[in-house]
Amino acid sequence: MQTTLDLDSIRAEFPILGRMLPNGKQLVYFDNAATSQKPMCVIEAMSRYYKEYNSNAHRANHTLADEATTALEGARNSISRFFGTSPKQMIYTSGATEAINLVAYGWARANLSKDEVVVLTEMEHHADIVPWQELSKEKGIEVRYVPIDLHSFTLDMDAFEIAVQGASLVCVVHTSNVLGIRNPIERIVELSHASGARVLVDCAQGAPHELINFDSSKIDFAAISAHKMGGPTGIGCLLAKLDAMGQMRPFLTGGSMIKKVSTEGSTFQEGHAMFETGTPRIAEAIGWGEAVEWLDQFDMSEIHSHVNSLASLAAERMGEIEGITVFGDPTRNDSSGAVSFLHDSIQSQDLSLLLDEGGFAVRTGHHCAQPLMDAMGVPSTNRASFWIYNTPEEVHSFTRHLYEVVSRFS
Amino acid sequence: MREGGDWPDHLDSIVTEFSECFDSMERYELLFQYANSHPSPLPQEDWNEENQVHGCQSRAHIECSLDEKGGFILSGGADAQIVQGLMAITSIAVNGMQPKEVGKMEPHFADAMGIRSALTPSRANGFLNMFNRVRDEAIKMEAN
Predict the structure, then answer these.
(1) Quick one: residue A58, left, alpha or beta (phi over 0 = left, psi -120 to 50 = alpha)?
(2) Does residue A24 sit at the B interface (CB-CB below 8 Å)?
């Protein structure tokens, strides 16, 4: 399908895409599910902060501090507006991992008791598994895992309907970082709330491809990462409904988040400020704010259609190469730009290095989703993942090189 | 051993063989050939948790021992052919050497061979993890 996105203009905003690698090959970047590249406006906004008004935020009265604070809070306004919610419901974190940990140690630790149930899925990233396993050891909560349907590689919703009964919290990935499958979040939220459970959605992979409207989605908590959607690394947020935020206790404490500290004890700020301690990631927040303003010029459904068509093209072409298995169905309309694959005789790490020799950056490994790998019966996969600036020509070039590698090394 | 302790002289011909390859793909083809002619392979049935070299992207297992003359022996196996090939060349390098000499080796021969991916500092780098473990084992043997 022909995209209406002006790919030449978009690519011109990402200077790294013109890079030649040390072996003389042109970079083709297909590791977007790990991190996306950054448009010039993001790089320049962060650079401008350091060059012109670097200062700590929320602390001093001088001009630079005012400018830094205004930019930090301006970014919060832009980001929360992009996600369809109020800045009051947004807590800056270091990324989606810290956001999930904030729900585990800020909300669940304070609100769940022994034997209460947290529902996870086999599709979760380790970031949405390990905190719950650790909390289970500490509090005695029960963790239930919803399996995937091994025929369709989608979530087994019949099993979900059983698992959610009596649960207090459901944690689910919006879009699988391995399979690119988008889960039926609306149905999950409906079933979870009907069972009295709050819902945490890991939106790290979904946010770059789909407009997530937090308020209308009725999700209780959303964990979001900036660096997969054109923003810098080291920043993300937790979106939390105000009533859920009101039940949270801080798990990181120190400067900034307090009202008053004395030798007798401390009182804390209210709202999101209670959970943002220490010097904020000011440059990173400014960069992320710029990234969402940049993304806002596009129709997100157009981005989704584009990456979906690239994934479909890649999966179809790769399926024609002998020995290649593509996992799941990247041609589905709700798939989101990640294609996991393996060759039957070329080990995944070898394959990724041989693809790198052609200039193609793909990911290899368990993708921090070992329970999903176990369910799929493989230790690792190769993964090509696409974003707004990738082109059909790059996909054709990639599949030609893959064919050559398979011909020479299998 | 070269001055500076980089790699033993008998690896020179292998380093030259690789450096004379037409391009990187030809180098990898040659490395796959070495993977299939490991001088002291560790059979897959002997791969276990204890001898596993931990790295995110591939499985690699090594066992270090001494021959009857006190020479170092490196047995190994990996599921990735590139790691297995580098492991085979490392075995060619260290087998028969005194542990003290093995403990001083640096992995620069991989760089000289033109296998640049072997020396990236990634935690997932199977070759580097393997090489560091070989060196640690040799230092331990020497201390004993």
Answers:
(1) left
(2) no
CA-based nearest distance B125→chain A, Å: 10
CA distance A324 to chain B (A): 17
Contacts of B57 in chain A (CB under 8 A): 348-349, 352, 364-365, 380
Show the domains of chain A with their CATH numbers.
Answer: 7-30+299-409 (3.90.1150.10), 43-295 (3.40.640.10)
Classified by CATH at the fold level, domain B9-143 comes out as Sufe protein. Chain: A (3.90.1010)
pTM: 0.92
For residue A185, pLDDT over 60 is answered with yes
Q: What is the pLDDT along chain B (144 residues), one digit of tens a residue?
A: 555 457 888 999 999 999 899 888 999 999 999 999 988 899 999 999 999 987 646 788 999 999 999 999 999 998 889 889 999 999 999 999 999 999 988 888 888 888 866 656 565 567 888 888 999 999 999 887
A296 and A82 Cβ atoms separated by less than 8 Å: yes
Here the ipTM equals 0.85
Asked whether the beta carbons of residue B32 and residue A409 sit closer than 8 angstroms, the reply is yes
| Residue B66 at interface with chain A, using a CB cutoff of 8 Å | no
Give percent above pLDDT 70 in chain A.
100
The residue in chain A having the minimum alpha-carbon distance to the alpha carbon of residue B60 is A349
* Residue B24: predicted pLDDT: 87
Domain ranges of chain B: 9-143
User: Is B126's CB within 8 Å of A349's CB?
Assistant: yes
Is A368 among the catalytic positions?
yes
pLDDT > 90: percent of chain A:
90
Q: Is A353 on the interface with B (CB under 8 A)?
A: yes
**Which of B27, B44, B81, B87 to substitute to test the interface with A, most A CBs within 10 Å?**
B81
pLDDT, one tens digit per residue, over A333-370 is: 787 889 999 999 999 989 999 999 999 999 998 889 99
